[in-house]
Amino acid sequence: MRFRLEVAAVLSAALLAAASACVQVRLLVQSSPLAGFRYHEAPGLFPELSIGDRLDLVREPDNPHDPNAVGVEWRGRRLGYVPRRENSALAWAMDRGEPVAARISVLRVHRNPRLRVEFEVFVE
Known about the structure:
It is built from 3 helices and 6 strands, in the order αβαβββαββ. The protein is α+β, with helices and mostly antiparallel strands. It has a 6-stranded antiparallel β-sheet.
């Protein structure tokens, strides 16, 4: 009987600790290469980037080239854009206030600039 009470107390404490811990659930919705690597600050910043770095997604509904444009920034510096063929659902979600986050998932030295940086987008 005493053993059961001790086990119950330990389990209760563990459940209470787990319930009070901040658990963050993130749903991966997209993995994309960075578009426009050569035309923004990405080439100069490439040596400073790290896998896992947080990226900011900046909606540009007035962009004259693409009404669904979503810029990708690192520490306030423009790296490039979400590729046009992959930005419509993300733009739609951002326009509706969905909480989205992004991070660098792949960095590689490659002669093709489109293959140097990849990022993941999450809904939180």
